[in-house]
Amino acid sequence: MPVPVLLITGFLGAGKTTVVNHLLAHAAGRRIAAVVNDFGAVNIDAELIAGASDGVVSLSNGCICCSLEGDLLRTLATLLRRDPRPEFIVIETSGVADPADIVRNLMDPLIWREAPLETVLCVVDATTTPEKLNGEALLRSQVRAADIVAFSKVDLVDAAGSQQLREAIRALHPAAVVVDAVHGEVPAALLFPVDVDRVPAPREPGPRRPTADRFETLSWTSERPVSLPRLQQAIGRLAPKLVRAKGLFETVEQPGRLMVFQFAGGRATLAPGEAPAAGVPRTRIVFIAEIGVLSKAEIDGIMEACVEAG
C-alpha cells in the first residue's frame, strides 16, 4: 500500500513544529513518521519516547520522528523500508523553503508510486498583516502551494485582524481551506482523509462527523463501474462545495482496473490503482465538506448518474 505524504510548510516562526508535535502526540492509532529539519525542536512528551537509534526517535504510540539529513528522497526510501511501515509520512519544511521545489521532488514517479503527496498544509501566523503577506514573495508562494491554510497564534489577534488576513488569503488562493490551529491542532479529517479501502460495502445511513464540528464526511459506493466522462461532470458539479475528496473506482472504459481519485485545494487528480479486490465495492468515494453544505441525498443523486445503466 502507498504511504500518503503530508507536507507542512510555513514561514519562519509560524508554528509548524507545534503542529507536528500535536500530530505525533495525538496520533489516534496511526503510525506517523515525521521528517523534520530541526530535530531538537520537536518537543515530544518524555513518556512517549520508547527509544532512539540512527537519528530516529521511536515513540510508544507507534510513531517515529527523524531528522532530514541530506537528500529528501533518500530519507523517504529509508522510512518506507521500515518494519512496520508507517501509515503516513509528515514532512516539515524549512521556514525559508519554497514548497514548490519539494513538491516537484515528490512528483518523481518512483516516489509517487510508494509515497504520494496527499496534502500540503501551510501554517500562517495569525498576526501576519495583509501588507506582509502581499510583500513577502516566499510567504505568498507557501500559501499558494497549500490545500489547507492553518492559522496559528489566533489568541494574539482580534476578530477584525483575523478577518482581514482571511480575506487576503482568499484573494491570493481562493481554493484553499482556512482553519484555526489552536495549540497546533488541525482537524484530522482534513489531514488524514478516511481510507477508502476501509469504507464498508453498505452505504452509510448518515454522515460521519470528524472530531471538529466544522466538517463532515460522507461517502458513496457502487457495485458497478462508472463512466469516466460522467464522473468528471459530477465532480465538477460537487467541487464548489467540497473541501476534500478521495476515492477508488473502476471505469466502464477500463474494466478490471481501479483508478485513484484525489480532490484537494480545488484540484482533482487521477492515477492508476490496483486490480479490484474481492468482496468490496468497485467504487468507493469519500467526500469532506463543511457541515450542512452537502447532503447524502444530493451526493447520491449526482453520483448515481455516473453509473452506466443496465
Into how many domains do the coordinates divide?
2
What CATH first level of the largest domain would be assigned? Alpha Beta
What are the segments in which pLDDT stays under 50 over at least 5 consecutive residues? 198-212
What class would the helix/strand composition place it in?
alpha/beta
* Number of helices, counting only DSSP H or I runs of 4 residues or more: 10
Outline the biggest β-sheet: 9 strands, mixed
- Approximate helicity band: 25-40%
Distance between the termini: 33 Å
What's the mean pLDDT score?
82
Tertiary shape: globular
Count of extended strands: 14
> How is the largest sheet built, in terms of strand order?
3-4-5-2-6-1-7-8-9
CATH superfamily of the largest domain: P-loop containing nucleotide triphosphate hydrolases
Q: Kindly estimate the percentage of residues that lie in beta strands according to DSSP.
A: 25-35%
CATH architecture of the largest domain: 3-Layer(aba) Sandwich
Give, in order, the helices and strands.
EHEEEEHEHHEHHEHEHEHEEEEH
CATH topology of the largest domain: Rossmann fold
What Rg do the Cα atoms give?
20 Å
Protein described:
It catalyses: GTP + H2O = GDP + phosphate + H(+). With 310 residues, the chain is α/β, with parallel strands linked by helices. It folds into 2 domains: 5-191, P-loop containing nucleotide triphosphate hydrolases (Rossmann fold, 3-Layer(aba) Sandwich), CATH 3.40.50; 196-304, 2-Layer Sandwich (Hypothetical Protein Yjia, Chain: A,domain 2). It contains 10 helices and 14 strands. The strands form 2 sheets. A 9-stranded mixed beta sheet has the order 3-4-5-2-6-1-7-8-9, sandwiched between helices. The protein is globular.
